[in-house]
Amino acid sequence: MTDLRTIEGELQPEQARIALAVTRFNGFITESLLNGAVDTLRRSGIDDDAMTVVRVPGCYELPLVVDRLAASGSYDAIVALGCVIRGSTAHFEYVAGECSRGLGQAMQRHGIPVAFGVLTTDTIEQALERAGTKAGNKGADAAGSALEMVSLMRQL
Q1: Annotated catalytic sites, by residue?
Q2: Mean pLDDT throughout 74-87?
Q3: Options 3.40.50.720, 3.40.50.960, 3.50.50.60, 3.40.190.10; which CATH number does 18-155 get?
């Protein structure tokens, strides 16, 4: 296997312009995701002036904003951050499903990496765990994925 040509992204591209689209709904969770993402980008050498934070009402609206950001041509990658917590109605499935589908469509339509940092959890406790406690910070993970994809796309 070592004879095969391999193309892989790196976590520290030379420079990248990153948009962070973050929802205000469940803000006590999404602010932690945003902090984790920004910290990862800074540690990877991305300057603050290369980052743009865009506030979005909720996860259902996230795909439209991400699509517009991707269409602008101003960014090398977009990090989508949000949190949908399951309730006692079908609302969770509609919001989470449309958010996921729309983000994927925006990425494919515009050919720009969109990192999925949207939590879909059963409980508030699970969301808190994924926003910086027991299970790490999924915002930080999404930012790392975005950087790796920028590097990979530049090589392809």
Answers
A1: 91
A2: 96
A3: 3.40.50.960
